[in-house]
Automatic annotation (TrEMBL):
Pathway field: Lipid metabolism; fatty acid biosynthesis
Catalytic activity: (3R)-hydroxyhexadecanoyl-CoA = (2E)-hexadecenoyl-CoA + H2O; a very-long-chain (3R)-3-hydroxyacyl-CoA = a very-long-chain (2E)-enoyl-CoA + H2O
The name this protein goes by in its record: Very-long-chain (3R)-3-hydroxyacyl-CoA dehydratase
Described purpose of this protein according to its UniProt entry: Catalyzes the third of the four reactions of the long-chain fatty acids elongation cycle. This endoplasmic reticulum-bound enzymatic process, allows the addition of two carbons to the chain of long- and very long-chain fatty acids/VLCFAs per cycle. This enzyme catalyzes the dehydration of the 3-hydroxyacyl-CoA intermediate into trans-2,3-enoyl-CoA, within each cycle of fatty acid elongation. Thereby, it participates to the production of VLCFAs of different chain lengths that are involved in multiple biological processes as precursors of membrane lipids and lipid mediators.
InterPro entries: Tyr_Pase-like_PTPLA
Length: 239
């Protein structure tokens, strides 16, 4: 899911400082976040350029398919960052959020090519792109101890629209994939087999959709709480 789409939700905001990473780790994280910011900017430019050339928002996915797969998969390194301790965020939460997007990128959109024409794909791609440009910029400037307020404000405000937009796109895309998954038996394993194990990918996708029901409001309201906490603290400082 895009709490999942909100981008490593607010509790991970800006690689929170405890003691902070060492100089080498900080330099590495700055480089990583700059590269990821640039990558998502490439995706944004690709979307705009193709839209202007075609004069239509339909089927823009194909213009950014490769960089989207590359940079979204590159987010797997964030799990490693947490696991080795250079970023003090929850490994489990980060893994859940990263893997949910990687899953949607590869196991749904890539694997079920028929859904790539759906407008819902553009919905979550646009939400992800804006979110990630802001998020990685936020991390970069935070690590450099020079965070512009506009980026902090965007980080803790635009999710109000982008999170529901991304979740809607993700759910509609999974829903659109269901008939093709059922028809082809994609990734399903039937009995009998030597492992005495069965797996129905169609049912699994339905369960994934159902999981959004408890998770979306929980993450969304948590992020609203974080927004009040962070931005209210800034207002208090200026009073």
């Amino acid at each position: 899911m895009a709490g999942p789409t909100s981008g490593r939700s607010a509790e991970n905001g800006g690689h929170k400082k405890r003691q902070g990473p060492g100089a080498f780790a900080t330099a590495y994280l700055v480089i990583y976040n700059v590269i990821m910011t640039a990558g998502w900017l490439v995706i944004a430019v690709g979307l705009v350029r193709t839209y202007l050339a075609k004069g239509s928002y339909h089927n823009l996915y194909y213009s950014i398919e490769r960089p989207l797969k590359f940079f979204q998969t590159g987010a797997l390194l964030e799990i490693v960052h947490c696991a080795v301790g250079i970023v003090p965020s929850s490994v489990v939460l980060t893994a859940f959020q990263v893997m949910s997007r990687v899953f949607l990128t590869w196991a749904v959109t890539h694997s079920v090519r028929e859904v790539q024409d759906e407008d819902s794909v553009l919905l979550f791609v646009v939400a992800w792109t804006i979110t990630e440009i802001i998020r990685y910029s936020f991390y970069t400037f935070s690590l450099l101890n020079h965070l512009p307020y506009i980026i902090k404000w965007a980080r803790y405000t635009l999710f109000i629209v982008l999170y529901p937009m991304g979740v809607a796109g993700e759910l509609l895309t999974i829903y659109a994939a269901l008939p093709y998954v059922k028809q082809t038996g994609l990734y399903s394993i039937s009995l009998p087999n030597s492992y005495n194990f069965s797996f129905d990918y169609y049912t699994f996708l339905i369960l994934v959709m159902v999981s959004y029901i408890p998770l979306f409001p929980q993450l969304y309201f948590h992020m609203l709480h974080q927004r009040r906490k962070v931005l209210y603290a800034d207002r208090k400082k200026t009073e």
